[in-house]
Amino acid sequence: MRLQYPSSVKIIRVPCTGKIDILHILRAFEKGADGVYAVGCMEGDCHYNSGNFRARKRVEQAQKILNTIGVSGERVQMYNLSSSEGPLFAEIAQEMTERIRKLGPNPIKQAMKKAA
Amino acid sequence: MIVADKKPIEEIVEEVKDCDNILILGCNECVTVCEAGGKKEVGILASALRMYFLNQGKDMKIDERTLERQCDQEYLDEIRDIADQYDAIVSLACGVGVQFTAEQYHSIPIYPGVNTCFLGATEERGLWTERCQACGQCVLARTGGICPVSRCAKRLLNGPCGGSSNGMCEISKELACGWQLIVNRLEALDKMDDYEKIFPIKDWSTDRAGGPRKVVREDVQI
User: Fold this and answer.
1) A3 — contact with chain B (CB < 8 Å)?
2) B87 and B156: one domain?
3) In a domain, B124, yes or no
4) Which of A13, A25, B10, B64 is least enclosed, having the fewest CB within 10 Å?
């Protein structure tokens, strides 16, 4: 399909979104990521039955923690799509990039620069 | 196991905000199983605190460590060499671990990172319920393996009371009447004769009524 999506999106492959832990998301922000989104299978279509539901819960928990510590929880999102939906994948990457652009850079990254 | 719940991050922030160098100390036992104070929760809390203080313009050094247990001296000794370098330790162990750590390290403030709740079981992931109040005189042999001290809101030994309706307790429609559970179980075991026996007055001196308790076992002492 040779679809275009923003080059700022870095893909980290996991066997299932159920593998994603809150700590993975938090560490990404600690290391300066501006946003994180998990792309899992459609709800009800998880190859491991409930991996994508676990991921959604963990994304929600990470959002709560980020809101508490002054980094907008909106920077973390969960999306569900099937593996055949390439165009939607590119669309989501675009949508997420725009969402993060509106929110601006990760305040932790800026604080780190100031501290250094 | 001892069941604990996470403390809000804001509460922990309030305790440690004036420190420059802290240690988040987890425990590999009960609090790991109830997902409140194990290695993973230590990592999450440390990461959240690091980002919070960085965001506030404060460069706080936050280290992570998880011990096998905090209620045993030999494991607590593992941080003997490093403890002095911290302004405070946030212990994610149960109240026992927090206190025992504080007893071993006199000069460092130890703050609790969890709320210790009760002795309970994992009914399902994310749901823990109370099963024992450590009264020191177990009556489970007579009650079909269901504890009236922890499962009955009134701790009745000859129940149920008049507040039991349709198998539920009057204090909450979602709480099963402990004595209804006991009767059901005794019926299933064909041991309703046990129900007819009146419990004598229980010696509550082995419960909290007798003050802080201790168990002395000379046979295992060295």
Assistant:
1) no
2) no
3) no
4) A13
